[in-house]
Design a protein that fits this description.
single chain; alpha+beta; Alpha-Beta Plaits; three-stranded antiparallel β-sheet; 7 strands; elongated; binds nickel (II) ion
């Protein structure tokens, strides 16, 4: 629960920022002491304020990972491309991407790394399969030296 939320009753929370109501259910989890100690250590290392918040994040992360196995699942992705400054084919491909019917380009950023190399970060939204296909075709282009795609499935149900 973020700052500014109002607890209503025992099991309903009204979050002012999201302006929607979520039902909160409490669950009990049994763990071996060693496992709990390891979890608490990990939690402290990452700076979680509570076990509940850490467990919620783990569950969301795992659901997102599982969703990514479905090519039709909705996702967002950041595609990182390091490429030669003089590669014009890549620039044309990036322009084609902007006109794709399947993907929505949310944003892109260009950074001049040094005299010869540029970094392009492209943020995409769309079905996982289309994002992967487009990203892989970009990464395999001549002139691209390094490429990486980071995907997140955004629907939790
Ligand atoms: Ni540049």
């Amino acid at each position: 629960m973020s700052t500014g939320c109002v607890v209503m009753g025992r099991s309903w929370v009204l979050c002012c920022q999201e302006t929607k109501m979520s039902q909160i259910d409490r669950i009990g989890v049994s763990l071996e002491k060693e496992l709990l100690d390891a979890f608490d250590g990990l939690m402290a290392k990452k700076g979680y304020p509570s076990r509940s918040e850490a467990i919620r994040d783990l569950i969301r992360q795992q659901i997102s990972v599982e969703k990514l196995a479905d090519p039709k699942a909705k996702a967002v992705a950041a595609v990182f491309l390091v490429y030669e400054h003089h590669s014009t084919k890549l620039m044309g491909m990036l322009a084609d991407l902007q006109h794709s019917h399947f993907l929505q380009v949310i944003s892109s950023m260009h950074i001049h790394l040094d005299e010869h190399n540029c970094l392009e970060v492209i943020v995409l939204r769309g079905p996982v399969g289309e994002i992967n296909k487009t990203a892989e075709s970009l990464i395999s282009l001549k002139g691209v030296k390094l490429g990486r795609i980071n995907l997140l499935a955004t629907e939790m149900t």
